[in-house]
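Please predict the structure of the following assembly.
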Amino acid sequence: MNKIDKTYNLLERISTLFRSEIRLAGIQHGLHPVHIEVLSYLSRCNRLSNTPASVSEYLGVTKGTISQSISLLESKELLEKVADEKDRRVVHLNLTDKGKQLIENSMPPTSFRSPLEKFSEDEVDNLHRLLDTLLNGIQKCNKRAGFSHCKTCVFNSPKSPSEFYCELTKEELPWEDGYLICREHAMCK
Ligand code: SF4
């Protein structure tokens, strides 16, 4: 078996197991997998990226499916719609405390957390580097850029150990925000 087939087999098996965990997490709360995926994404994205269109684009599902999912999650008080302060036509989706709690208790699943906790810091760093490179390569190939973190973004201009400047939004942001998913992310050359 060549290196590509072997890697593909491993990633495919991991993603199958992960989807199964998402399904089980949803069943406990009367939710479908897509509902858990919406909540999980919203718990990890920045405020440029928490619109219904961004959720639809990130998950690769239709706007109709996302709209239905948002209505259901709203009715279960897991998220709320908030109009943008500058442009009232734009809607942001914020998790409620109940929604945050549900995701915190479910994701990442214990079956993923436990083996990763056994890795050393160096092993995890190496794994992240390789997975980052693989993800960037896949995004370049299928021309679906965006939805990554500030650290590899061309608009990221470090200011201090605690802050960076986003050249796109013209805002100074805390480094913690740099670990959130951003739909406007543009890859450094
Ligand atoms: S630096 Fe890039 S990834 Fe970070 S907020 Fe700005 S556009 Fe988004």
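The pocket of iron/sulfur cluster is lined by residues 46, 48, 150, 153, 155-156, 166, 168-169, 182, 184-185 (CB under 6 Å). The longest strand covers residues 79-83.
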